[in-house]
Design goal:
Distance between the termini: 35 Å
Number of helices: 10
Shape: globular
Largest sheet: 6 strands, mixed
Helix content: 25-40%
Structural class: alpha/beta
Radius of gyration: 18 Å
Number of strands: 10
Strand order of the largest sheet: 6-7-8-3-9-10
Bound molecules: adenosine-5'-triphosphate
Length: 236
């Protein structure tokens, strides 16, 4: 799945222009990271890809179709989003949360197989299947959020800060899962604060600086050759 963001401007209210002229693309099968400090505009860019905030100008296209077009359906196109707050229903069990991820699907047999696939990937979810989701740790909730997003068998997966506030061992697990999903052919846009790990794991990385401007992009080697990027990220 191809995502193309071209010269995007996004405004909140009448004053805050949170993204100013961002251009980036994610090609089919790629894992692309988007990094930058707090307030750089990363989450806003994700919301623009989901069509939750409209472009003031510029465009967001998925496989050649504009996401803010009324007829565009993220569900039908196979675009799944794991938001920063994870969006878990805390009054439901782990199993109910997972099933809810596939509630729009008609092929219930295939859905069961996909649930099984995610329980293999995240054994802790099998262990806590009947437990209230509010009782899960942050790391377990993040695993549930990713597993739930996978219930739609997405072709494009958007992950907003999936390792934020998690213990190092869980951060390792989440990065392993991200690599695994890419190997399975899922196209991924990953927003992260963990710049070093993201650059390492991604095919390409975009560096965003407030107010939502791309100041560099490329592979690890390409980024480290850019004085502006090195200065912004504070790398040695
Ligand atoms: P963080 O890592 O803190 O989430 P970010 O890079 O994701 O940061 P955004 O959340 O996209 O950045 O915010 C970009 C800018 O837009 C910031 O100046 C922020 O204060 C502003 N902003 C974000 N959401 C809103 C909103 N709903 N209304 C007004 N301003 C907003």
């Amino acid at each position: 799945m191809d995502l193309v963001i071209d010269d995007l401007y996004v405004q909140y209210g009448s004053s805050v222009m949170a993204v100013q002229g961002a251009s980036l693309n994610v090609r089919d099968g790629e894992l692309v990271a988007l990094i930058g400090q707090n307030g750089a505009g990363k989450s806003t860019l994700m919301k623009a890809v989901m069509g939750w905030v409209g472009p003031h100008s510029g465009s967001v296209m998925i496989d050649g179709a504009a996401v803010n077009d009324r007829k565009f359906s993220h569900l039908k196109r196979g675009v799944s989003f794991v938001p920063e707050d994870r969006g878990i229903f805390s009054s439901l069990t782990v199993g109910e949360n997972l099933r809810l991820g596939g509630v729009t699907r008609r092929d219930k047999k295939a859905l069961d197989a996909d649930i099984e696939r995610e329980l293999e990937r995240f054994p802790v979810l099998r262990k806590y299947w009947g437990r209230g989701a509010s009782l899960l740790s942050g790391g377990e909730q993040q695993q549930l959020a990713i597993a739930r997003a996978m219930m739609l068998n997405p072709r494009l997966l958007l992950l907003d800060e999936p390792t934020l506030g998690l213990a190092p061992i869980i951060v390792d697990l989440i990065f392993d899962v991200i690599e695994q999903l890419r190997a399975e052919g899922v196209t991924i846009l990953l927003v992260e604060q963990n710049a070093v790990r993201s650059i390492e794991v991604a095919d390409r990385t975009y560096v965003l600086q407030a107010p939502g401007r791309v100041i560099g992009s490329g592979t690890a080697a390409e980024l480290s050759a850019s004085p502006a990027v090195v200065e912004y990220l504070g790398f040695e």
